Amino acid sequence: MSLKQQASTGAEVDEKLAALMTNASAIRAIASAVEGTLGPKGLDTMLVDRFGEVVITNDGVTILTMMEANHPAAKMLINIAKAQQAEIGDGTTTATVMAGALVGEGVSQVVKGVPVARVIEGLRAGVKKALEVLKDKAIPIKGVDDPLVKHIALIAGREHQDIADLVVEGARLIGEEKLKDPSFKLSDTVDAEEGADNEVFLGVIINKEPINDLMPKELADVKVLVIDDALEPEEMEDEALGTEAGFARYLALREEFKANVQKLVEIGVTLVLVDRGVEDQAEEILTDAGIMVIQRVANKELRKTAEHTGARAIKRTGLKKDAAELEKYLGRADRVMADEKLEQVRILGGHGKPMATILVGAATEEVVGERERIAKDAASSVQAAVKGGIVAGGGAIELAVSREVEKVRESIRGMAAYGVDCVSEALKRPLSQIVSNAGFNPLEKVGDVVAAQVEQGKDSLAIDCDTGDVTDMLALGVVDPALVKSYALKAAGEIAEAILRIDTIIKKREEKDRKNDFDEIV
Q1: For residue 488, what is the domain's CATH number?
Q2: Rounded to whole angstroms, how far apart are CA atoms 136 and 446?
Q3: What is the pTM of this model?
Q4: Which of 63, 119, 245, 467 is at a distance of 20 to 30 A from 108, taking alpha carbons?
């Protein structure tokens, strides 16, 4: 083959791989943005917007969602991280780093001449095997009082002992049964406030104040009404008000509304939570009756209050029901307190389902958000551990799983074996990055751990980031939820396969252009 022919062939190969290389570079850039935060020695990232507003965080999903990313492949990876956060609540950094490693290894194999289809085939087989091994190696948690729960909270809480203690106490108050409920998220019970004291209590917080200062600041033996609507008379069209009949109807509706509000006083309601606004006349009647009213309450807080107090949310039209029927919609609580300093109301001792609030204090406004993110990560990890057990942390379990995946290569025929290699190598990445962030040589330390795990027959060996020695992570209390690890690997495998399958990138036409073409045809 002549030099000219060789150059032509090389150009064709480069052009064919252009989309893959471009996407791989974008994925690598995103992974690089968060990998420095991994492990106990991971550092923080500063995010700055065009107005100079600064966010300093160690939280992977916060970095990913706040950073500017225009490349479509980068956006795909960020969406995977968001899905990890929504499903599990933690492990986004691990998922991102693993995805970057899988894509990088996959591209390397394709450049060497391995067909993409074969790489994907092996990748699927490797991920499947890894997930099976992870499930088998998970150590069950013996309820919320298991000492391992504290370790989980401390690791996920980035060594913040006060936050870990709050989360564990909150988990105990909620109970194991509730933690295993698929519809419940312990992280939703976390609230952070500047100037607040660290506290865990059975109850919910409404981040609003009573609508005027004349209303009571504290209530006992409370009857709660939750209105998922506005507390106002039914609306009428302006045209209808212009007629005599329409105006008469308007007056009748106002009188009916007044009677309905008065009915709330008669049945002993003492706290009213309203989704939207409250009409002036209703406010006056309820204030005179010594009833606390909170308007424009967030929908999430309305739902939590209803669940905790046993109340059934009602629309404004539901207030027409007779008194006996209306009482069936009321919830109960032992105590309600308005905190003027924190500008919130606490509802304590609800007679419905147990609901704990984990209140995390912060000294300044700048650290409120970060402490809340840390507490939510810890809460999510504790719940995931209770659901699916734990595995050794520090990158130990991934390295052990990597050895098991390597055995799959022996049963894979043809070039798909190179796809299995991608998974095996990607599983070494977390330990490698953790060690690198701690200031040690990753190549040397990964080799040391592999040799030690094989020699001692222990899957829980990894590197102590303080000393650099090979250490048993379980003995150190360095553990991670098994569900976080398995979901991160699954998510990484999905994004890697999606990226590797993209052969061509074509810019779409704008919607308005397509509409104009359609108009011309018509």
Answers
A1: 1.10.560.10
A2: 23
A3: 0.75
A4: 63
